[in-house]
Amino acid sequence: MGHLGGGTKGQSDVSVFCGIDWAEGHHDIALVDQDGQLVAKRRISETIEGFAELVEMLAAAGDTAEAPIPVAIETPRGLLVATLRATGRRVYSINPMAVARYRERYSVARKKSDHIDAMVLANILRTDAHAHRALPEDSELVRAIAVLARAHQDATWRRTRISNELRSLLREYYPTFLEIVRGQSSGLTSREARAVLKIAPTPTLAAALPRAQIATALRQSGRRRRVEDLADEIHHALHQPQLRQPHLVEQAMGEQALALLAVLDAECTNVERLGETVTQAFHQHPDHAVILSFPGLGDMLGARLLAEIGDDRDRFADARAIKAYAGSAPITRASGKSILITHRKVKNNRLAATGFSWAFMALTNHPPARGHYQQRRGTGDGHPAALRHLFNRMLGQLYHCLQTSQKYDPGKAFPTLFSSAA
């Protein structure tokens, strides 16, 4: 953990440490000195009055603007965390699983209370602050981008889940409709497919649907080209004979499909709206030009990368640290004569998912990246391992370019492969 950097800065002059046990209705505060003795404790609410009480506690314990008392808490987000970070102090987000292990260090009987957890958090900073990472000092803009990019990613995942659920349902009673959307790039999530399914949720209704109504639905969905031709194709396909469920069962499944379709419509709208907002915010950040210079990165993937790595240049000690954070660097487990090298399971899952998509897009559109991928496959790597290795290499290049404020240069990134491709 210390390899990530930023864990010990400002700790040498600190004599009091604060731990906050966060809860939905209240927060327990504990202050301990360098010997682990309790200095003060209190329970506050998440209000202006509660925060004023916390500030008074810290001030009474020796908190100053030059040497603010560090705070340990189990969550990296929320109003209390945002307000604490605004005061300029270092806030450490401690994993709850780590807190549980530390708790056993102070209580053999494994007793637990909110006050005990607050003291455990404070003692973690007292003894092992160097082994933990403070929340990065990211700019307000990049933190806003993180909120939007993660919301867009969540909406995309929900859209995929609902689309798959709807596809499974249609397969049970309406396979003809799946054949219609199979040739479209967006499948069930396309506006045209959703518009037609809304007016023809069952084979019975589809058989009675006139071609003119299909054309109207396509135009209302935003379709402008080949409307009549597409309406003819859909009309012909919907009138093809197929296996059918009993009438009442088919009606029930149609109602279920409409319910899923309403959720899918909402998620598709969310993805489009959030995508526009993410793009606008991303282009306001000075790092966007460097990020977009890399092959395979567009606005969405670039914004997600920036959201997860931030713009605090001191957040990661070196390229190895950011690779470990992303889960792209392998991990070695050695014991005696046994040595096992495998991929990391503890990582930033959002960054790892973004990296997988980035590597796939890069090898598709960039010959040097494609050559590197093929070299890894030639050494015996499977598809996921080769993609992960490509992401690992390009992430290190991105880290270097962000640190030095220079854009991607394929001749430097893949010198041998680039000269061969040229």
Across the major sheet, the strand order is 3-2-1-4-5
What's the number of domains? 3
The main β sheet shows up as: 5 strands, mixed
Approximate strand percentage:
5-15%
Give the helix level as a range of percent. Answer: 55-70%
H/E element sequence: EEEHEHEHHHHHHHHHHHHEEHHHHH
Number of strands: 7
Count of helix runs: 19
Q: Helices and strands: which structural class?
A: alpha/beta
Rough outline: globular
**Residue windows where pLDDT falls under 50 for at least 5 positions:** 1-10
Rg from C-alpha positions? 28 Å
* Mean pLDDT metric: 90
Distance between the termini: 42 Å
Please outline what is shown here.
With 422 residues, this protein is an alpha/beta fold. The chain is 59% helix and 9% strand.
Main attributes?
422 residues, alpha/beta, Nucleotidyltransferase, domain 5, five-stranded mixed sheet, two-stranded antiparallel sheet, 19 helices, 59% helix, globular, disordered N terminus
Descriptive notes:
With 422 residues, the chain is an alpha/beta fold. It has 3 domains: 2-135, Nucleotidyltransferase, domain 5 (2-Layer Sandwich); 144-280; 290-421, no CATH class. The protein is built from 19 helices and 7 strands. The strands form 2 sheets. It has a 5-stranded mixed β-sheet with strand order 3-2-1-4-5. Strands 6-7 form a two-stranded antiparallel ribbon. Helix 9 crosses helix 10 (227-238). The longest helix has 37 residues, at 247-283.
